[in-house]
Amino acid sequence: MSTGTHSSRQATHGLQRLRLLVIIERIPSSHPYRLTPAGHRLALVYCRIHRRTLSPVLAAAFDDKVPPKLGRILHSLDHEVSKLREGQTLAA
Fold this sequence. Notes:
The protein is mainly α.
């Protein structure tokens, strides 16, 4: 299977995981899904993190200008996101 393509089984599994995390919900009596209020908040948080942190840091990383303290913060952020993906809670 080529990169970037998903089987219907993988898509179904992904939708099920998003439903279990209460990020999406099925529209009653139909097949489409929509974001839940929690899904909207998560999307906004992701966009803010990307705009304020990841975009500038990635740009700096390609220039080899990431300060050590910022590198540690990014490592911590990556660790917390990994925990979230594994079903654990984020640190306060």
